[in-house]
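Researcher: I've been going back and forth with a colleague about how Nicotinate-nucleotide--dimethylbenzimidazole phosphoribosyltransferase might be arranged in three dimensions. Neither of us has a model we trust, so I'd like an independent prediction. The organism is Aquisalimonas asiatica, in case that matters for your notes. Sequence below.
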Amino acid sequence: MTTNTPWDAPIPAPDTGAADAAWQRQMQLTKPPGSLGRLETATVRLAAQQRTSLPALERVWITVFAGDHGVCDEGVSAFPQAVTAQMVRNFAAGGAAVSVLARHLGATLEVVNAGTVTPLPPLAGVRDEPVMPGTANAVREPAMRAAQRDQALALGDGAAARASDAGAQLFIGGDMGIGNTTSAAAVACALLGASPEQLVGRGTGVDDDGLVRKRGAVAAALARHGDDRAPLSVLASLGGLEIAALAGAIRGAASRGLPVLVDGFIVSVAALVAVRHTPDVAAWLHFSHRSAEAGHDAVLRALDAEPLLDLGMRLGEGSGAAVAVPLLQAACRLHGEMATFESAGVSDGG
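Model: Here is an independent structure prediction for Nicotinate-nucleotide--dimethylbenzimidazole phosphoribosyltransferase. You can compare it with whatever you and your colleague have in mind.
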């Protein structure tokens, strides 16, 4: 790593005192203990992260990172790479799924172009900061050089810094990049010691022949890469610019004491990179949903994660995380606004 990267900033520990106080309040609310299930545990986790017995989620920050993938040369996607830049334009115009959801939530939404093949004009809400015009073909050579990986990591950390400086209470990272399920699957296979048959799915909807090509490309990339499982080496060799930026954002949010709601397969792989490098990052993560993408279950198990939702979603963009935000908001409202047995004059059964 270069010396100017924020990747090695220390990770604070959540506040166990705030968690204890939140649990005590949960025991006093007018309900049987545990009757709100995982809404209770999620609230207590947020209390520890926000260092208060009464957590809130009114200010949500979403950053979508875009980047193209050289592995598309292997015929791994049902869509051409031009779609990545076209979708960035769609984000800017407010027409993408995450754009709609951000408006619904009143969340801040920004898009960071980490490296599309097609150059972008100035667009409202888009930070055009390309590291390179897409990664190299990971089947033939490392997707990124170490310096390029570090630059992408720093892009993500910058997004976390902007969110923290704006007073965000929750960070969501999203992805856009044709071919990125191939790159993410390759990273996951390398980190977990799994086979392409276990983790490579259909992504944008490739047919049977496309799935064979996709698994073959991942197998070839893994063979070229070798047995190195060091997270940052794997990221540079097999990953994508937006995956690296997401890993940097997740770690950057954790280093600033900002809770992260992890989206689906791509973002979970980025979280796996961050946690494998710095295990303390895990204390700052919530998981939104179980993706329909084939490899997501294995990545969730590796992260000891239990997502909030299972809706068969596989869109990316941070859309699954955005859909889950109202659940966490409801959990916080219940925790903060329900009456206690004492205030309501209700017997607690004691």
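Researcher: What would you highlight for our discussion?
Model: I'd start with this: Residues 16-54+335-344 form a domain with the 5,6-Dimethylbenzimidazole Phosphoribosyltransferase; Chain: A; domain 1 fold (CATH 1.10.1610.10). After that, consider the following. The longest helix spans residues 146-165.
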